[in-house]
Structures are given as structure tokens and as C-alpha cells.
């Protein structure tokens, strides 16, 4: 297990040609660009948590049936500072960095002071975001880094706080049909209030494009929601959107701000300041995108932890949303490297299995309905919304499927009624050994797996001119726990979930988190075509 998680991976900055078996669809042209932790030691120091590792970008460029692989560490300020010092000097969420013991007392005192109100890391290791015509590596702090998706070069550092007052923001933004980016962040004790801020980065307008002006400068706040606690805001990883509404879950998985402010002095990590409160409710906030105001009805459900929203849509005056939910916060605990370096299959068992749950909330509540009555009359779901006193509604979900994570959909159906979820199947541990296609209509599933293989998040790419929701292919990066099996890019037919092709690479490939596919059509005509760029000087990959 140490080979997969704890061992530092070498970057491969120059493109390497893969060996392709099977047949890649001729229409599939572009770059699969992904992000995740690749290095967990610097000098004699080591990160505590897998999510703390230094960001390693990697890509598979697909053109004319050929595939080229490359990887490169994100040259963040965090990376550069650590490498220069040959030790971890920038704190991550699960690892607190401390000053050099050789520093004098004044330097140490300054370090303690600076960590009281910390300047968070720019180690953007979670996802890739498209904003206007640019691409960014993202994490959950206020920083993100512009990158070149073709060369993986690290470009400028961007601070959300220059455009919107947030200290934290999700790495899972949404995109609407107009090209606007929607996201949510937390403003910690801003003007005496802690709040969740929903904001929009508008699509690039022609005059800005001509002037080289970033759309970030036109960022606007859509809505602010006051945190239920000034000093213990909710942690969240994603949110949901429909055509007219935004879904935000204020879950009882809270960050203790006072503990975070004193964590450095107390010798603990910021992660230790997160706590799940199983006795508290999960509050469901529904925000009307047209007015920027929350729906007045107070919706809530049982305590749970959600990392990934799947999709949401409106149906007959109701809003339905699907999430992957846990009954506790044990998922985060399981990714401490001390746990992953053991025989995880023998020693680790889920205390809470990730479950696909469907919630339904009424957008218009019947004031004359009896207390305890179900306000959901849809035939399409068994989810319930029970009326209570004081304009409160208790929501009971429909349980759709157990044992899946890292969900993706055909994004053309985002915010709309949909049918298929593509996800990683997880059984005895949070590490996926299969990927699946789940049909929310028929409640049936197709799976793909292979012995000794660990599969990344399955990403759907639609066929040009697709008529059906599952017309397209699935891309997943596959790593084997058997050192004799080289890593490969798996290409499946999304409809039948059968293998179309795979592209083997004879270099180290790391387990990643999230990413996106960039079709060739998304690149400006003035930029060098990905296929030409990777072919210049590319080496061949020979697999034994």
C-alpha cells in the first residue's frame, strides 16, 4: 500500500507515447487533465495525511488514435518554499509545519503570531477549474493557480479575496449554459459575521477578451447565508444547482475557528479542529437564483456528512437532489497515511458506507397541510418531506445505492432530470476497485473491474451530436497494486460499459482526485495544437 500512497512519485514533464490496445473512437480528440497529491515527504519531514501531499498534475493527450502522457508538479509557492528549505515549512490541513529549531526566539514568536490568522496554502491539489478561456488548479483555500493545460506549466497565483470576501471556497464549481462559473465559499468573521457566500464569475465578454481582462474582475455575489454558528461554520466540499435554484447543505461537520486559531501553539493540525456532531441536524438551504434569496421554508434532515453532490433538478413544484452521504466523518480519518500504509484490506472497515441518497423538497408548501403529512406527491421517488411546526419540514431520503463515491454525470444534464451516475465502487475501503454505471430510473448497475487494479474517478465524454444521455465514452486512470502491471488509461463505451481501448504508459502514475476533459475545440486557434505539441520530442513507451 505504501507504493500507492506513501511513496513519492517522479514527474514526467516531457510527453511519453503510450502503447494503445483496442480502438480509440476517432472523434475523441483532446486532453484528459487531472490533479492529485504526488509527494508526501520533503527532506526528513513527512505529511500526515494523503490530502496534504504536493499537487502533481498529469494529462493524457489523445489525438488521431494516439495517446501521450506527461506529469508535472505544481510549482506553487508552497512547493517552492518546501523544496528550497528541504523540509515541510508550509502547513497543510492535516499537517502543521513548525519553524526551524535553529531559528531564534523572535522568529519563532513571529511564526506563532502568523498562524493565529493563517495565510493558507496554495498547494492546489484537488481539481481543475475552467474560468473563461483559462484553466486553474484548485483546492479549498482562497488560492488557486493558473496553469497551461498543454505543458502543465504553473502560471500566476490568484487570490479569491481580491474579488470576493471568502477565506475558503470549494474546488467543485458549477458551470451554466452561458459559461458562467458558480461557486460557494466561507467568509470567517467578516464584519462580525461568519457566512456562506454564493458567487458568480461571469463568462468572458468580447471586450474583456480583446483587452486581456480576466472575468474574475467581474465576480458578483449572488447570495449570503449566515452561518448558524459564528465560530463553528460547516465544512462542505460541493453543492448542487438546478436551472432556478442552488442547494447548499449546512451539515454538522464543523470547523472550530477558535481551535484553528490556536492549533499552531497547541501543536495540533487544523484537521483536528473539525468535528462531527451526531446529535445535530443537517440544514438544507434552497436559494432562488432569480432573486438571490433563500426559500423561506426551513428544511432539515438527519445528521450526515456529504462530500459530493451528484445532481439536482426540478419536477412538479419540487426540487430533487442526489448526494453521496455518510453517517459520520470517518472517511477523512481513513486517509491518514498511517492508516493507508497498513494492510488496509485487512485492517480497515467502513464505519459508514457511502450511500447514494435522493432528497425531495417542496418549493411551495401547503399551509393547510396537516402536521406530519408528506408534502411530496411525486411518483418518481419515495423520498418524503414531513410538515412540522414553525414552517419546518423534515426530509427523509430515498436510498438508491450503497458503496459508491466520486460520482460524475453527463454534464449536459447537470441541473436537469437525468438517469445515469458514473462512479467509483467502494466496498471494504474508500479505495475504488471497480467503476460503475448506475441507472437511477431502473435501479440497476453495470460494473467494470480487473484484479489488482485501482480506478480513478470515471469521467464521461459525450459523443459529438449525442442524442441519448449515455452516448459517449468513460475515461478512467487505472493503477495496479501489482508492480508487474503498468498503469493505463481505460476507455469504455458508456452505453454498454464495455472496454474500447486502453493506453499503457511505462512511467509512474499517481492516484489522483479530480479533473476534466478538454476537447480540442476548447483551445484557441492561435495556440499550438495539443497533438503537435506532444509529438515534438515525445519518447516512445515500451511496455514489457
From TrEMBL:
InterPro entries: Carotenoid_Oase
Keywords assigned: Iron, Metal-binding
Cofactor note: Binds 1 Fe(2+) ion per subunit.
Signal peptide from the UniProt entry: none
UniProt protein name: Beta-carotene oxygenase 1
Pfam assignment, any one: RPE65
Family: Belongs to the carotenoid oxygenase family.
Binding site for Fe cation: 172, 237, 308, 514
Molecular functions (GO terms): beta-carotene 15,15'-dioxygenase activity; carotenoid dioxygenase activity; metal ion binding
Any one GO biological process: carotene catabolic process
Cofactors, names only: Fe(2+)
